[in-house]
From TrEMBL:
<dbReference type="GO" id="GO:0006351">
    <property type="term" value="P:DNA-templated transcription"/>
</dbReference>
<comment type="similarity">
    <text>Belongs to the LysR transcriptional regulatory family.</text>
</comment>
<dbReference type="InterPro" id="IPR036390">
    <property type="entry name" value="WH_DNA-bd_sf"/>
</dbReference>
<dbReference type="Pfam" id="PF00126">
    <property type="entry name" value="HTH_1"/>
</dbReference>
<keyword id="KW-0238">DNA-binding</keyword>
<keyword id="KW-0805">Transcription regulation</keyword>
<dbReference type="InterPro" id="IPR000847">
    <property type="entry name" value="LysR_HTH_N"/>
</dbReference>
<protein>
    <submittedName>
        <fullName>LysR family transcriptional regulator</fullName>
    </submittedName>
</protein>
<dbReference type="GO" id="GO:0003700">
    <property type="term" value="F:DNA-binding transcription factor activity"/>
</dbReference>
<dbReference type="Pfam" id="PF03466">
    <property type="entry name" value="LysR_substrate"/>
</dbReference>
<feature type="domain" description="HTH lysR-type">
    <location>
        <begin position="13"/>
        <end position="70"/>
    </location>
</feature>
<dbReference type="InterPro" id="IPR036388">
    <property type="entry name" value="WH-like_DNA-bd_sf"/>
</dbReference>
<keyword id="KW-0804">Transcription</keyword>
<dbReference type="GO" id="GO:0043565">
    <property type="term" value="F:sequence-specific DNA binding"/>
</dbReference>
<dbReference type="InterPro" id="IPR058163">
    <property type="entry name" value="LysR-type_TF_proteobact-type"/>
</dbReference>
<dbReference type="InterPro" id="IPR005119">
    <property type="entry name" value="LysR_subst-bd"/>
</dbReference>
Length: 308
């Protein structure tokens, strides 16, 4: 037996050959086995012959339309059936795994993150998990995960509800910036106080920017801003059009042509990036796989964008 195992003819062992062997063994003939497998009889005969060549001995004695197993066939039958059972278990396991990562996942995040940060991450998710269909909700309104308006949220604030699972992914730097054309006209601010002599682009009802600048040592009021909007995409386009100096997440600069950072030493508190889901949904294999993928890929995407 040891010499058979060492036979180089067995190096390219093919499970298909064993499957064909068992079909003939159980059916008692090539024609019966072909019918059971839905295969062509010549193909089945060729596969059995190939296995016999690898083993160096016949497995069946052809008698009329039947096939009588040899002593070798009976000797290897139990091991062959064990292989068949193992293959069936593997098939069922793969089927279950495929079912667990097939379905819809609803992800919500801000307009800017949905437009700039998540597209390459979600494209990578589709390559890695083609069975997952993503519903991306681009909204600055905080979708309520508790009411299941979304499965996963990417947010710049930690949720307060204890029923939610949150993982902090990164601290996103906030930078002062302006278009080169604007700076050519108005000059480049050298110290934070110079900003008060520039046209500032700010938020309208959202006071996040005012609080952030105050924390960075530059107290400003709504009156210091010359143009205001709470629409984050419009905000970026205003900066790209040369409307003035504004403040954006650092990774946004990759997508705002001609907009450059100014005052690199200005310290504005960063935005924490949180990945959030409901505690109960976290046990769903589909949501868990998506959550873990985002947790791994979003920090890498942020790092790559910041390096551009």
């Amino acid at each position: 037996m040891s010499s058979t195992l060492a036979d180089p003819r067995l190096d390219a062992f093919d499970w298909t050959l064993v499957r064909s062997f068992l079909a003939v063994l159980d059916a008692g003939s090539l024609s019966g086995a072909a019918k059971r497998l839905g295969a062509h009889q010549p193909t089945l005969s060729r596969q059995v012959a190939q296995l016999e060549a690898q083993l160096g001995a016949p497995l069946f004695e052809r008698t009329g339309r039947g096939a009588t197993p040899t002593a070798l066939a009976l000797a290897i039958a139990d091991d062959a059936r064990a292989m068949q059972e193992g293959a069936e278990r593997l098939r069922h396991r793969l089927t279950r795994a495929r079912a667990e990562t097939t379905g819809d996942v609803r992800i919500t995040t801000s307009q800017v993150a949905a437009s700039y940060l998540l597209p390459p991450v979600l494209a990578a998710l589709q390559l890695a998990e083609p069975g997952i269909r993503v519903e991306l909700v681009a909204s600055n309104a905080l979708s309520n995960l508790i009411r299941r308006e979304a499965d996963i949220a990417v947010r710049m604030a930690r949720p307060a509800q204890g029923s939610l699972v949150a993982r902090k992914l990164a601290d996103i730097p906030i930078v002062a910036c302006a278009h080169r054309d604007y700076l050519a006209r108005a000059g480049t601010p050298e110290v934070p106080g110079d900003l008060l002599r520039h046209r500032l682009v700010g938020y309208d009802r959202d006071e996040t920017m005012v609080r952030g600048l105050a924390a960075g040592g530059l107290p400003v009021t709504r009156e210091n801003f010359h143009i205001l909007t709470d629409d984050q995409l419009a905000y970026g386009r205003l900066l790209a059009a040369g409307a003035g100096v504004g403040f954006v997440a650092g990774y946004n600069l990759s997508f705002l042509s001609g907009v450059v950072q100014v005052l690199p030493d200005l310290r504005i508190p960063p935005l924490p990036c949180w990945l959030v889901t409901h505690r109960e949904i976290r046990g769903n294999p589909l949501v868990r796989r998506t959550f873990d993928f985002l947790a791994e890929q979003i920090p890498a995407a942020l790092e790559g964008m910041s390096a551009r």
